[in-house]
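re: that complex we talked abt at group meeting.

here r the seqs, copy pasted straight from the sheet so there may be weird spacing, ignore it
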Amino acid sequence: MKRPTMYLLLLLVVAAMAVLGGCASLGVEVWERDVLAKSEMQLDNAAVDRALDDHIYFSKEGSSGGRGFGGGGCGCN
Amino acid sequence: MQLGAHRPIRTAVTAFTATLLGSGTVAASGSGKIDSSLLIYSESGRVKVAEGVLDLSRNLSERRSVGLRLTLDALTGASPNGATPSNHIQTFTGPSGGSSYVVNPGKTPLDDTFSDQRVALDGSLRESLNRITFLTVGGHLSWEHDYSSFGVNSGITREFDRRNTTLGVSAAYTHDIVRPIGGAPDPLTSMPPPSTTGEGEDDGGEAGPGEGKDVFDVVAGVNQILGRNTIARLDYSLSRSSGYLNDPYKILSVVQDQNSAAPGEPSDYVYERRPDTRNKQALFGELRRYIAGSTLDLSYRYFWDDWGITSHTADFFLRLPVRGDHALEPHFRWYRQSEADFYNAYLVGGQAAPNYASADTRLAAFDAVTYGLKYSLPVDAGSRLSVSAEYYKQLGERGPPDAFGVLRQYNLFPGLDVFMVRIGFSHEL
Amino acid sequence: MSSSPQGGYAVRNAGAHWAITYAAMASPCEILVHCDNASEADEMASLVYVETMRIERKFSRYRDDNIVHAINHSDGAAVPVDEETSRLLRYAGQCYELSDGRFDITSGILRHAWTFDGGVVTPDDALIEALRARLGWQRIEFDGAAVRLPRGMEIDLGGVGKEYAADRVAALLAKTAAAAVLVNFGGDIRATGSGDGRRGWKIGIEEPGRENVAVGQIEIAEGGVATSGDSRRFCVVDGVRLGHILDPRTGRPVAGAPRSATVIADTCTAAGFLATMAMLHGPDAEAFLDAQEVVYHCMR
Amino acid sequence: MLLFSVPSWVTRGHLRFLIFTLVTLAAASLSPRAATTPGAIAVLDSLTGDSTIVRGNVVYVDFWASWCVPCRRSFPWMMELLSKYQDQGLQIVTINLDRDRAAARKFLDDTHASLPIVYDPAGKLAKLYDLQVMPTSFVYGRDGTLRSRQEGFNPEETGSLESLVRSLLKEKPTK
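got the structure back, here u go
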């Protein structure tokens, strides 16, 4: 368990660095968020549904969790 | 711009009255949201649950918002107790020790003494430290008659690269107290036979002082806008549980060995025993894309822990617009998990007792699928109603390859068929 | 502002539409809606009736159980206000600024110095001066959450309330029904929902003093109409007829004002303010309205 | 995170990862703001096609889009500002960044807005002004120089913005 964990962590760190390193092709300008500002494009737009799901699967399956925070959005304010 | 002696004030009057009347969407600036949901969950022949959620969020100022969520649920029905089916009538002692229940030959033993209500309260406060940095702190409380939980959490997110990238970390600590009915049984000891139970409490029936469990979670993740229509995220989470991790109501059948008169028939029932720590990790990836009015969401989770369970979860949501502002949302989920190292469908009498053993099917290897369909529609300005139906099914192995005797006759994985209906209502304040 | 004590509303079919009528805010209230059947009309009627009564109860100066009473009897103490009251007070403050002090919700106390029953009066200059010392919006402390009136001052939202109620009721109906709506609160009118190419509402303008005789007609699809001026409420000072519109800056009725000014604007509230402003401009009423580029009708 | 002591089970790898994340978060907060663009007013000038709007006046330039919630809230305030100060020489030019012109029109209907609008669906001006937040507004003095860059719209900050406009209006017009 220990080894693969380290590799996965490394992978995540590398991915984060690649993003931060300014992959200029990724992403859009703040005024190009018309679609991303839509409520259905918010990653946490069905928070109550997902919470109910998590509760169901938590009580019926051996694994749980994993989902983090929201983000993206309209780039406003 | 001066016309004659009189100043034109009409523009200003229009603006002032628009503000006064809250016309247009000037007032709909998102001061908060109410989300409510009612779930009816029904396993065929087993547990039924009704669960209601009321979620309120409100912006206190430009920089601060609070959220409060109340969850109520009520559960009734029978649950597999972990024992194997037999050719004979089986009698089990109920959790309180003062009752017993009988299982007919060939049937999966179900404990039908379950009935529980749960109340949970979650609160959170979100504050922007500046335009791109957000701090969240929260708390959690929940009560059941044999289980209570409280927790605190905190997280920070920050946006980068013209707000295309969001990085965040959060941590949570939860302390649970289990007060099993009749006290926490001694692991891997025999279930007291029903015949010995008299009017008073037997030795296992005393309510114990409660067993504790601590959970520490950390999540780190990145959200990335990939294009004008696409957003993705990747989260890594780590969870460490320690303390009382057994399910006090789960037992294992100790069956007679292959050379006995009745191979595979239970000779005893013992309480399960799990390790007292568990380290879980997960990687979760999600991609959401807007395609000509529809929204596609794909996600995948890889989970592994030091109990030997690994799992794969793939979720697929497609939101299809229907005329007006209605939407139809098919959902498909596929899940596969491997069994825990100490999962045993049963123990064999006369063999050396393992350190840990559980016949809880949640720790067995199985596949599961969910099919769902949701329909949502606007009902008023800022309000939406949704109705959804989902079907969830677990499919597992009939039994281990070395099953013998009567154990080969029966499906040792009880399986699960669930039908769920949900009604949701959300309203922007 | 007072309503018939027994209250209640009436709903009747009036050809192409349904008419909801009741009395509120000292005026006959009539609401015309396009809808399919009586039960739908009745549902809308109870909705608008409740809302109208709510606004009247909340902002009437003649009650002792509402926020206006609490503010007027606060004896110099700050009074916390709810969000709706806050919006109205903010609007009143903006009107004060915009009108250079002509439009002032604290000027109601001047009624003690004037009687507009058509009779000849001799102004009591000492009383007028004493009252003028007790008014002026700029002396009120208002931060959006609480308002503090100096002792002896009063506010009166009567000059805003009826128009506000008409707009609110129209907005309420527009939210629940897509059909066209015409709200008429004693001549303060708001129309919504017929901007979809449908013909507008025809509204007659009465000659002052001769009710039910239309001397003009206007057609609106979407927007508000309001009239300021009341031909029956005037007094005669030194042989000059003065209407009931008082200028808080002088404490006296505005001389040379039209007998009435009717203005069409985006909302009833905006129309009401512009109409009152026109009256406050006296002989310049028409010139003022010309500069606003609005459709209007002044009677002299 | 720092609210908790580190339990023994946290491996060095976990710690390294967390420290990396925290250090990255901290480092990014220290990076300097991008400089504002010089000369953009000239572009605006040529786009509006009316140099009298710009020259000698205090010009408030606002970038907005229909889908941006704070933009909606800024419109009544801008209209109020204009009505108060236009006779003293304030001009407001709004730059709309919607791809969908119909969405922009609906926004203007909803807010009863009557402000001059430059349509920039391709975001050329937005690029030139290096926008980082929606909405963003720029205030130019009577001499045509940029005096303020306002990111986002916060009703709590409108007071200081109004006093800035007032003080700029008091400056002497230059030819």
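couple things i noticed - Chain B has one domain: 10-89+98-130+212-428. Chain B is about 5% helix and 55% strand.
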